[in-house]
């Protein structure tokens, strides 16, 4: 039974990972979160994660992963690189190896605190083509971690097969819609909540929310 076990959530303070955090809190007896400082554009992301974890009573560990900035150049770690997504190529926001490294370090932390469950908010339904968001990658890494650390880890991906509108509905079903909308940071320009409305992350988030409100909330009002 999951209710008797402990989970570690890979947590950024964004919409997806916060939704997963609420999910984990309902699924597991104990939940911890881990956030990574990899030199991202906005240190506010880490402060946002700390604030959310504190308000929800979740122990948060922040790990220094600044070495990523030494290995790869991208728009999330370099303010002089514009955020662009040209057809046929990965967006400039793609950070090589990020989810691979984050999940691997999260597993080390999890084993140390007696947790075998890892939770991450990756999905391949309406993503930007990031290879380390794919289900095949997560399943492959799960096997690798189990072999490497002689531990029966389970990597949970609650959002893997749902789009952004369904992710908003998922948060709503968890009773967390308003919290996720008002407290999370998804915006590439560092604006909490609804964000700047112009960057790719904000456009995806807003389009999903508008679809959710018109499709799901409208249906509920009609049925009631």
UniProtKB/TrEMBL annotation:
- Indicate yes or no for the key word Cytoplasm: no
Quote the record's cofactor note: Binds 1 zinc ion per subunit.
Q: Which CDD domains match?
A: QueC-like
Required cofactor(s): Zn(2+)
Q: So where does Zn(2+) get bound?
A: 187, 196, 199, 202
Q: Which reaction does it catalyse?
A: 7-carboxy-7-carbaguanine + NH4(+) + 2 ATP = 7-cyano-7-carbaguanine + 2 AMP + 2 diphosphate + 2 H(+)
Spell out the Gene3D superfamilies in the cross-references.
HUPs
* One MF annotation (Gene Ontology) recorded for this entry: ATP binding
**Record pathway:** Purine metabolism; 7-cyano-7-deazaguanine biosynthesis
Q: Give GO BP annotations, semicolon-separated.
A: tRNA queuosine(34) biosynthetic process
Superkingdom of this protein's organism: Bacteria
**What does the entry list as the binding residues for ATP?**
11-21
One of its Pfam families is QueC
Q: Which UniProt keywords apply?
A: ATP-binding, Ligase, Metal-binding, Nucleotide-binding, Queuosine biosynthesis, Zinc
* EC number(s) given by UniProt: 6.3.4.20
What is this protein for, i.e. what is its function? Catalyzes the ATP-dependent conversion of 7-carboxy-7-deazaguanine (CDG) to 7-cyano-7-deazaguanine (preQ(0)).
Q: Which family does it belong to?
A: Belongs to the QueC family.
Subunit structure of this chain's protein? Homodimer.
Protein name per Swiss-Prot or TrEMBL: 7-cyano-7-deazaguanine synthase
Per the UniProt record, the source organism is Fontibacillus solani
Gene, per the UniProt record: queC
């Amino acid at each position: 039974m999951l209710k008797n076990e402990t989970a570690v959530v890979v947590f950024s303070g964004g919409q997806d990972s916060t939704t997963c955090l609420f999910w984990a809190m309902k699924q597991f007896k104990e939940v911890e979160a881990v956030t990574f400082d990899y030199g991202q554009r906005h240190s506010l992301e880490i402060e946002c994660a700390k604030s959310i974890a504190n308000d929800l009573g979740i122990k948060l560990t922040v790990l220094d992963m600044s070495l990523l900035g030494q290995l790869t150049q991208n728009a999330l770690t370099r303010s002089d690189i514009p955020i662009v997504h040209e057809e046929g190529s990965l967006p400039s926001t793609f950070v090589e190896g990020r989810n691979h490294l984050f999940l691997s370090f999260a597993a080390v932390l999890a084993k140390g605190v007696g947790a075998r469950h890892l939770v991450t908010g990756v999905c391949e339904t309406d993503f930007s083509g990031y290879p380390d968001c794919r289900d095949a990658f997560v399943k492959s890494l799960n096997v690798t971690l189990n072999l490497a650390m002689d531990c029966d880890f389970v990597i949970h991906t609650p959002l893997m097969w749902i789009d952004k509108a369904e992710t908003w509905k998922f948060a709503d079903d968890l009773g967390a819609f308003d919290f996720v909308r008002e407290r999370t940071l998804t915006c590439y320009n560092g604006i909490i909540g609804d964000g700047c409305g112009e960057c790719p992350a904000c456009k995806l988030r807003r389009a999903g929310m508008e679809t959710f409100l018109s499709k799901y909330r409208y249906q509920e009002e009609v049925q009631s």
